[in-house]
Specification:
The protein is of the alpha+beta class. The chain has a single domain (about 20-155), classed as PH-domain like, CATH 2.30.29. The chain has helices at about 25-45, 50-55, 55-80, 140-155, and strands at about 20, 80-85, 90-95, 95-100, 105-110, 120, 125-130. It has a 4-stranded antiparallel β-sheet. Helix 1 (about 25-45) packs antiparallel against helix 3 (about 55-80).
Length: about 160
């Protein structure tokens, strides 16, 4: 960090704790679940009594299980987030949560054309950050710049 560029905690780019979530993925995921539910309901209502009588209980349960599986997958994508705190970073990707200290974060990369950024860790591992997605446009680039600044300031 260049001399004279020290920041105090009050001058950080965001107030901590701060959470980033993928807006586009959340909106689209739940919109598609709702649209699929409406479509399936409309198709079932449109069936004649003869066709409804031919559907077995096993087929109904299979269809219900498929619907529950879709909701679980959409929930996993929409719960993804990144939380920056004074003491570290929490990355939630689907149902996996990683709590990192700032000292563990070596770099935050967002290659051109990548769907989400990656964090290079001191352990040599690399983790994806699904809580920030390129589909959100300029806000995703701003989030990565902010995270880079926080990593530099707090590590």
């Amino acid at each position: 960090m260049p001399a004279g560029s020290d920041r105090t905690g009050s001058e950080l780019p965001v107030k901590l704790p701060h959470t980033w979530r993928p807006l586009g993925a959340r909106v689209m995921g739940w919109f598609l679940v709702a649209a699929l539910a409406v479509m399936c309901t409309m198709v079932w209502v449109g069936f004649s009594a003869e066709i409804k009588a031919q559907v077995t209980m096993f087929e109904r349960l299979t269809f219900g299980a498929l619907g529950i599986g879709i909701v679980v997958c959409v929930h996993a994508v929409t719960r993804s987030r990144v939380v920056a705190r004074e003491d570290g970073l929490t990355v939630v990707n689907g149902f996996k949560r990683r709590d990192l200290e700032w000292a563990e974060v070596l770099a935050i990369n967002f290659p051109r054309g990548a769907p989400w950024p990656n964090i290079d860790l001191a352990s040599g591992h690399n983790i994806s950050v699904l809580g920030i997605q390129a589909s959100d446009g300029g806000s995703s680039k701003k989030a990565v710049r902010t995270l880079r600044t926080l990593a530099e300031e707090l590590s």
